[in-house]
Design goal:
The protein is α/β, with parallel strands linked by helices. Helices cover about 45% and strands about 20% of the residues.
């Protein structure tokens, strides 16, 4: 089974070097490694050239566009994705490929993602690791949507990925934007085809938490963007009337007010930030639902 590893990168030459080296040190060597640069700089190009892997520039901004370009360039039957701020365990690719062999018919396989902190993890982040990309489903193997793996640690049949149009380019990080949910959009499309997905807990990737993200301000921005992301993927797959969007916005605001009470007077201090992140996520969703309720897209859907 021929394998290609695709690593999209955006202005992280030092981190992408670590990611590539972790792939080159695998117990099962990939047939090719492709770095897709989404914001080309001389430094990144030089770093990648020194590692002896393929270097491709994708001018369309966004991680989804970069991943799709990598899949288009790939020659492998299986394309494995790794983010530029992650490093793979030494048997990562071997475990992903073995998972395919153990379950005929699987289109995609995802693995476990653990976090690497720049310093000791701040205690106020307890319970909030999900906003930083951790992924751990325990010993279970089969996944059924709405469960799906994260693209920072997954492999997929190239023909299946291309057949559904790749990752939705409307979703996913783009520059400083924190919009996400590109995996949600992809796995909805795969599920519509009746294709199955596996989880391999022993295929482990370690994801760096950047120091600038260790602030409450960043976390609340991330939560707000998550609320918007949830609505954006809904827009792609559900045609809703303007009145329905308005009702959803009101419901989200009402729930946010309830959560805010917990943030102001929590039963213990450790739940305050949990409640505030939930408030921001609900407000992010409500703001976009409200905009769609009165905007051109809602009118075009007909009411």
């Amino acid at each position: 089974m021929k394998t290609s590893v695709v690593i999209p990168t955006y202005r992280r030459p030092r981190f992408v070097a670590w990611a590539v080296k972790s792939v080159l040190d695998q117990t099962r060597q990939p047939d090719e490694v492709i770095v897709v640069d989404n914001a080309p700089t001389d430094e990144t190009a030089t770093v990648v050239a020194g590692l002896g892997v393929r270097y491709v520039v994708e001018p369309r901004r966004g991680v989804s566009a970069a991943r799709n370009r990598g899949a288009e360039e790939a020659t492998g039957t299986i394309v494995a994705f790794l983010d530029d701020d992650s490093v793979a365990s030494e048997d990562w690719l071997e475990r992903l490929v073995d998972a395919y062999a153990s379950s005929a018919g699987a289109v995609a396989v995802g693995g476990r993602i653990a976090l690497r902190w720049p310093t000791a993890k701040p205690p106020w982040l307890d319970g909030l690791d999900g906003y930083y990309g951790t992924f751990d489903l325990g010993p279970r193997r089969a996944l059924r949507y709405p469960e799906y793996p994260y693209a920072s640690n997954m492999a997929i049949r190239r023909d299946a990925l291309l057949a559904v149009g790749g990752f939705p380019v409307e979703l996913g990080r783009r520059g400083a934007s924190l919009v996400s949910n590109e995996e949600d959009g992809l796995f909805r499309r795969l599920t519509e085809r009746g294709w199955s997905t596996l989880y391999e807990p022993d295929a482990v990737v370690y994801h760096w938490v950047h120091r600038e993200r260790l602030s409450r301000r960043w976390l609340l921005r991330r939560a707000f963007a998550q609320g918007r992301s949830d609505v954006l993927v809904d827009v792609m797959f559900a045609a809703r009337r303007r009145a329905d969007r308005a009702r959803r916005a009101v419901a989200d605001v009402a729930e946010a007010i309830t959560e805010l009470r917990w943030a102001v007077t929590p039963p213990d201090g450790g739940t305050r930030l949990l409640a505030l992140t939930r408030v921001n996520q609900l407000l992010g969703a409500a703001a976009l639902e409200a905009a769609l309720a009165v905007g051109p897209r809602a009118r075009a859907e007909g009411t």
